[in-house]
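User:
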Amino acid sequence: MGTRKPIFIDRDGVLNVDVSPYISNVDQLQLFSWTVGSLLKLHENGFEIYVVSNQQGVALGITSSEALEQITEKIQSAVRPEGFSIKKFYHCTALDSENHPWRKPSPGMILAARDEFNLELGDAFFIGDKWSDIECAARAGCRPLLVLSGVTAPGSWEQWKFKPERVFPSLKEAAEWVVEQG
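Assistant: Predicted structure:
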């Protein structure tokens, strides 16, 4: 089958319903109805899935690190029956004010995945739901795709410094398009 192509996906607003201010426990995690099928489609078409997610709620004390692990495990448990798992979850739990190199829009989490798994980023997609995802993708040399299932209002990306390559209603349509790109 050859090497799998990396694809980077944000968590809140893309894989699951975004909860304000933060998901604080595993019971609040609600995957979208299309999430598992979309990830399966990517997996079946040769993609290796990496989740990159800012989780400032941990530093703020809203989400415990145990809860973050349980949420991660719940997402993995949803896809495992389909015969695959998400390769790795990268979380930045630092505060926005810390200017942590992993915190999106900085590309640190993607660069960490590149270094850890020896990935080629040139043609890799990043699917996210906000400006910081799009900027992170651009700064990492990835192809930014925006979904509107999270916090971004239709049309608002026109004002952004970094623009998405394409915009989709949800991960479902984004995954279908990515697969068509070969």
